[in-house]
Amino acid sequence: NQDNKLIFLLNSSCCPSLFDENMKDIPKRRNIRKARSHPSLVIKRGNEGELENIRIKLGNVSNFIFRWIRKMIKIKNLSVGYFRKEVIENLSVDFEQGEFCALLGPNGAGKSTLLKSIIGFLVPEKGEVLIKNKSVSNWNKNELARNISFIPQDFKLQFDYLVEDLVLMGRFPYVGYWQSYSQKDKEITKNVLKQLDLLKLRKKQFSQLSGGERKRVTIARALAQETDILLMDEAFANLDINHQLEIMQLLSEINLEQKKLIILVSHNINLASEYCQRILMMKEGKLIADGYPEEIITSQNLKKLYETNLKIIQNPITGKPNLIYPGKNVQ
Description:
331 residues, 14 strands, single chain, 4-stranded antiparallel beta sheet, 11 helices
């Protein structure tokens, strides 16, 4: 409809096996279950008269739904590495519009390599990466920068810049040859600074900011790009817990309000569980688990991932699975 909401009108009497037989080919039914609570997807059960609005062939229900769920990133049989050493091997995974995803795994699992492959920084040895159904190798750099913003783990600058100038640089993909930043670019920058409560810092040098403030500035620059996809590598590196919570809350609000696909690499299992809709676990270049936090964050999966015994409890406030450490005297 005009609000960009997709409404499925389903009739339980005409389609008694709709969520059983015809959905069994959807991995873990993640998309269907997500659709029931997702702000941009609504499923309603209707009466027989309402079936005139949408006609569904029982044998093609899953295909019907997938045509309407927009795939932002499709990764097919990806193998990629450095200096002829394979880091990711035969990996296939899709990401949808509006998802908030966390990549978890030990160091060297291939998480950062996956992000670099998505932005086209690394060329696959095998397989391909599709952005909006177009191979990443077929995008020019400006086009890609208008669709994907990337925040690296270490954001280093050769020169020091004012905060407002650094955020304005996020508009560079929209600036033509021999052109300067337009009034629209400056207005977008100002709005983003206001949104992230950075107006009071706009005349400060980047080097003068705290770790949390710097991270907010890098997010602001990414938002100024006005992309549908936001990637963050090691989102909480060197941040205090208060800044980690602040950044995660900010990303959650951006995801909810702007429907961006957000994929972040993190080692903070509890924050990922509390804020992210989807958890992906990687080890030795392979995807070993993918799904809701409640399904994926288990002692068994963490044992596979980190090769150590860790206990999972339910957060008494949120109900989400949380990691607790066993203590020094527990084997």
